[in-house]
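Problem: given the chain below (450 residues), write out its structure.
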Amino acid sequence: MRQFEVLAVIIIAISSVSADDRNASAVFAERIMPIFNSPDPSSCVQCHLSSVDLKDYIRPSSRDTFLSLRDQELIDVKRPRESKILHLIAMGESDPDSLAKRIHEQNRKAEYEAFATWIESCCKDTDLVNAPTQNDAASVGPAKPLEVVRHARKDRVLDSFVRNIWSQRMRCFPCHTPGELDPDNPMHAKPIERHKEFVAQHGAKMNIFKETPEKTLRSLAASSRTHRKDRLPLINLENPLQSLLILKPTSKLPAKGDDGKIGKPSSQIPVSHMGGIKMHKDDHSYKAFAAWLQDYAKSTSGEYKNGESLPKDNWYPTQHVVRIKGLTDWPNLATVQIFVHRWDTETESWSKEPVAFTQSKVTPRKIVNGVLFVLAQDDSRKELESTGETLLPGKVQLRLHLDHEDALSSDPTLFLNANPPDATAIIEAEFNQGFKNADIVEADQVVHHE
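Solution.
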């Protein structure tokens, strides 16, 4: 027993040695290098899909790491515990996603204390603190530009998800939107029963849209990591346009069997949808879904290399509708993009950049109906986020671009307005809400251009 007591005293004594009693190199080897050598991602994944990892801030030696962090003002030598690198590690504590915060809490705290202890040890070494700036030393931090790192932040991805996917969720009502079903609303009685029947038949996978965008995106992200032979994933990271999230609403009912009954829906190619077509390929909703899915896949894989490779991602959904009639010379089901340019009374000219756009197909009645997305410029994005996605009434020019070469089939995110418009129309737009209150353009208002 005496031997065990002595051993316990030794262990306690060793474990009680503080960072003050060890040099920075020893602390670095003990606390920082395990982070650097770990095959697992750091707690940065709590807030970032890709492009940054805590390992990016570590160099092979304690001295080189400290000097690089110090020279980039990521370490405060006078107030070590207020160093910027510690602030970056601790940012996960303010994550509004409580589940992600809880999952990464232990790892985040361990990383924070490891860096804090090591930085304090370094700052006690006056020779190290006062070492000359390493002008020729390699810097630490993400290899990719800051705008790429920010683009892969989960809060930015969630904002884009809300604008592009969540805003269109009512196309999937009531089968996939249980949170939108109100038992106190008499008009929801039949939809509620229908939803119950589908859940009983197909299971909880019917409930694609959860109570909040955050929960929905988390569920979709989890499904993208699941690979099954009998069904495509809701988000297909390898081939985004082969995601069930976009294939299902653009697919027809299952074929009827010999008995005349509708068959079972397919979640493999060719996909069929028990709800039938809810979204036409190449309309405004399809474009929004396709843009988000492709961006999410690229953000997750770290495919973006520089700011020039990032998508614009600056459109906000509205309930404004434009309806253009009399497109008699345009083929049925041809895809048309419409850009809205506002009249500038000061310059007496049309705005150089469009303020809104939509995309739709020419119907057999030679009509194009489109729901507008506001195109936010950098100086108007914050205003849109605070005031809501609406356009003020006024004189506008609609510029219509026909997809002559079927270019959108290979790149659904493409904008066609780099070339002159195929037709234009000038109207006094009211920009009211909904299809019943659409701004209507009659055939004689449309000017076709050769």
